[in-house]
Amino acid sequence: MENEEQVDDAAPAATELAADLTLGQAGSPVVVEEVKPRLPQLVRGKIDKNGVAMGTGRRKTAVARVRLKDGSGVVTVNGRPLEEYCVGERDRNSVLAPLKATDLLGKVDISVLAHGGGPTGQAEAMMLGIARALQAKNPLLHGALADGGYLTRDSRMVERKMYGHKKSRRSFQFSKR
To answer: What are the residues whose beta carbons fall under 8 Å from the beta carbon of 136, sequence distance 6 or more?
Structure first.
């Protein structure tokens, strides 16, 4: 019986609190402090005096030096067209991914010097270099490039071979007898 009375007493108090919280009845105005601007984002690229943006990308042991300028969409790698240099469609798509994410495919000319590593490592190094050059040319593209993960360096490297093992993790065949 006492519990019911407590519930009845609590009901009017709850409705008064709810009335205070409704949007239509504002009490004293709340002062909101201005948000301080964030630190400037790190731009890993340069623009030379001719307006050519440059970026360097690395993946495993591959290094790609990218030069990007406004143009008609020509992509050359080591003096050869991209379609000829990157035979695999997957590698071509990964190279062009930052351009597709920023809707600049066909609007900029890119020349790349790539060396070291294999085809996939070079393609992913080119992707990082292109993304860094795009960000250097237009810092407003940072959000689109970062959301796609194109500005992140993939730091995975081949694990070294250990002594007493056939490879880095594979042991020699064990014979119990």
So the answer is: 43, 44, 45, 46, 47, 53, 54, 55
